[in-house]
Amino acid sequence: MKYGFRILSLLLILTLVSCGKKERQYTIGVSQCSMDIWRNKLIKELKTSEYFHENVHLEFAYTHDNDKEQIEQIDSYINKGVDLLIVSPNQLGTITPVIEKAYDRGIPVILFDRKINSQKYTAFIGGDNYLIGKNMGAFISSKLNGRGRVMEICGLKGSSPAQDRHDGFSDELRKYPEIEIVAVKWADWNEAGGRRVMFELMREHPEGKIDFIFVQNDRMAKGACDARESAAGSRYKDVRITGVDGLSGKGNGIDMVRQGRLTATYIYPTEGDQVVNLALDILQKRPYQRDNHLISSIVTKENAEILDMQANDMARQADYLDALHSKADSYLRQLNNQSIGLALTLLVIVLLITVLILGYRITVSHARMNRERARMKDAQINFFTNVSHQIRTPLTLISDPIHHIVERGHLKESDFGVLESTDRNARQLMLLVNNILDFRDAKFDVSGRRINNTDRISDDNVPKVASADSSPGTAVVSTDCRGDGDSDLDTILVVDDNADIRNYVRSILQDDYRVIDAPDGSQGLQMAREEMPDLIVSDIMMPVMDGLEMCRSIKADMATSHIPVVMLTAKSQEEQVAEGFRAGADSYLTKPFSSKVLLARIENIMLTKRRLQAFYAEQSVRGNGGMVVNAAQVEKVITRDEAFIGRLHNIISAQMSDSGLSVEGIGAEIGLGRVQLYRKVKSLTGLTPVELIRKMRLAKGRQLLESTDKNVSEIAYEVGFSSPGYFTKCFHDEYGMPPGELKVR
Predict the structure, then answer these.
(1) What is the SS3 assignment for 87?
(2) Quick one: 617 and 679 in the same domain?
(3) Of 548, 567, 593, which residue is a domain's last?
(4) How confident is the model at residue 332 (pLDDT cuts 50, 70, 90)?
């Protein structure tokens, strides 16, 4: 009976839920940089569109052209977790970081009317400000028949509409050489700002003789008209003024055109319904266009009256829609207060609580079982991983050395040390096997606790027990003790917590490489930054810092990112190998390993590195100076190193003519010290930074000699040589001929 009631309750709640499924609700934050009649029109259109979408809730905030206030408002929206942001940024640069912050948090951002100095936004919608400026320039030039004197009053400096309108206007008037732009002044989009700038223009240019003034919005244009009309006897009384916005209503742009105060204005569209539709397309994963420019047109005295009538009619319809929406809300509130609705709601709540309790009990039970399974699985994986590591390490030090001796057929004096290490690791392996067998035979009491049988060591035998290589907390970092004659050998850093492994790998590599080593990832990372080795061979399972973390740190550091890393580890599972490569490893070998395979891998990496050195050096000193990467020229081009070389090349190319260009200056610009830059450039190109700069200058000089009519002295100074004589000497050393001879050819 109890289970039948539960099933009936579940069916009833599912039926009710399926009958009343609601769309997901979206909260959209709107941040306006200011509040004026044009933005009031936009907000009214946005609210009207909200009526048609029950699943949309709009929240509005605005400032008075204040960057700090707008940043705080957007931060508040981010912390609140809105689903989408619609932002009209006050200025290009200052608002950019907080918009990037929202975008990086996964919040879609629609820029309306204005843009930012970044590509970190989801979509843009608004008027084409460049086209507006261009069209107003074309209108004015047509009225002047290609000849006259004009001025421009711009909006807030640093805002994208002001800059774009100015650029479009200027570009259009450049087509007419006989039209002179007498002055350009920046204001602040407000009526008072337009009046102030107009007075400044009249004071600075009292001669007058101005045919047109292009003002970037109607509010500033109104202020400019007031200033023009208040200056009795001014030579500016007949100057024609144009604006932008084209709003209807008394005293606005279209009305001023009808009165003749403005010669023309340009309708700057708001289209709030399109903004909301774009937001829903983004939120509901529908296709959308990233850049959306709204279409508009110029208002003159010929079409001002009909446009004003249309705008007023649309405003009346919007007011009527507001009234209808308010009345509908009132009816819905009355309906929700009905008793039958309340009773049904209570019933649904009771049934929902019942289902939630049952679901919660089932979920808790499943979660408990899943946690136990996961714990047991993790323990099993960790156990076998550790056992595998403990077996493979001594096995490595037994199998490969014995194989070498058998292959050689006789013993050398140095082999006795190898045999001692083999004997020691064989006993360690036997001890490990005995411990595993002892664990299998372990006995437990009735309470589940293990019964321990401990064999104690007598005091006389304590000295015979093997001791650790070092005291606790002490790290041993050994380096190669060769003479100076081996300084040209490539350096290899071996990182492993097992001293026998480090010594054995050293014995394999020491004939061909300079070998240094470290006992853990932390020491290895420090040595990599100090020594800048040509390659690193590293274990994974180590104290203090494991090999994966060390590899990630090396690849993330610009100074060491070029160093190849070979993982030499007992971890042999496919996922473990994949994890090693994801950490940045260039190669992955599992223990027990073959010394021949290790040597072959290292030789192959070194060969590829030398090819890359030649490739990068050739690309860096080409005559045209361009970094051109051709995949056919090299088997594997490391993108991070390629980007570093490209950046280095660009810095040198940009400052090539500066004879005082120094390695320290280049390092400071890149973010590396002199020594780090020297080692990294030498490792990647085979050239020192000074040699690279000189070769690039000579290559550029040769290109100029072959392609221009400049003399040798001009070219020498242009490519950064302090004297033509030194340029001639270096050129002769590099190409086997003086530059003058190449010029004659």
Answers:
(1) strand
(2) yes
(3) 593
(4) low
Q: Is 74 exposed, middle or buried (0-12, 13-18, 19+ CB in 10 A)?
A: buried
- pLDDT number for residue 159: 86
What 3-state DSSP class applies to 477?
coil
* 629 in the same domain as 557: no
What the block records as the tokens of 383 is 């156990």
User: Which residues, 6+ apart, have CB-to-CB distance to 87 below 8 Å?
Assistant: 30, 31, 74, 95, 99, 109, 110, 111, 112
Domain that holds residue 740: 610-744
Q: State whether residue 157 is helix, strand or coil.
A: coil
Q: Whole-model pTM above 0.90?
A: no
- Neighbour count for residue 474 (Cβ, 10 Å): 9
- Render pLDDT for 531-568 as a digit per residue (tens, 0 to 9): 889 999 999 989 999 999 999 999 888 878 888 999 98
Domain boundary among 444, 463, 492: 444
> Which residues neighbour 576 within 8 Å (Cβ) at sequence distance 6 or greater?
540, 569
pLDDT at position 387:
59
Q: Is residue 156 part of a domain?
A: yes
Q: Do 530 and 571 share a structural domain? A: yes
pLDDT at res. 67: 87
Any domain includes 118: no
- What residue type is assigned to position 449 of the chain? R
Task: Using the predicted structure, report yes or no on whether residue 478 has a pLDDT greater than 50.
Answer: no
Enumerate the β-bridge partners of residue 516. Answer: 479, 493
**CATH number for position 550:** 3.40.50.2300
Residues 605 and 586 sit within 8 Å (Cβ to Cβ)? yes
Same domain, 547 and 491: yes
Q: Are residues 629 and 575 in the same domain?
A: no
Banded pLDDT at 594 (limits 50, 70, 90): confident
d(C-alpha 602, C-alpha 596), whole Å: 10
pLDDT digit string, tens, across residues 194-217: 999 999 999 999 887 899 999 999
Do 494 and 551 fall within a single domain?
yes
Based on the fold, state whether residues 586 and 630 are members of the same structural domain: no
pLDDT value at 467 more than 70: no
Pair type for strands 443-444 and 450-451: antiparallel
d(CA 225, CA 248) in angstroms, rounded, equals: 18
Least confident span in 120-129, 216-225, 613-622, 712-721? 613-622
CB atoms within 10 A of CB 574: 7
DSSP state of 586: S
Residue with tokens 């200025």: 91
Q: How many residues does the chain have?
A: 745
Contact indicator for 566, 602 with CB cutoff of 8 Å: yes
Per-residue pLDDT of 385-444, as tens digits, reads 665 556 666 666 666 666 666 666 666 666 556 666 666 666 666 666 556 555 545 554
Helix, strand, or coil (residue 6): helix
Q: How many distinct structural domains can be found in the chain?
A: 4
Answer yes or no: are the C-beta atoms of 508 and 598 closer than 8 Å. Answer: yes
- Is-contact 88 112, C-beta < 8 A? yes
* Residue 190 pLDDT greater than 70, yes or no: yes
Q: Which residue has the tokens 């004997």?
A: 423
Q: How far apart are CA 309 and CA 299, in angstroms?
A: 13
| Tens of pLDDT, residues 350-381 | 888 988 898 888 888 888 888 877 777 666 66
Decide if pLDDT at 456 tops 80.
no
At residue 551's C-alpha, the angle toward residues 549 and 557, to 5°, is 100
CATH classification at residue 678:
1.10.10.60
Judge whether 137 lies within some domain: yes
Q: What is the mean pLDDT of residues 19-31?
A: 78
- Say how many C-beta atoms besides its own lie within 10 A of residue 92's C-beta: 18
The DSSP code sequence of 228-243 is HHHSTT-TTTT-EEEE
The three-state secondary structure class of 416 is helix
Between residues 28 and 310, the one the model is more confident about: 28
Q: Which residues pair with 569 in a beta bridge?
A: 590
Same-domain status, 513 and 581: yes
Does residue 283 fall inside a structural domain? no
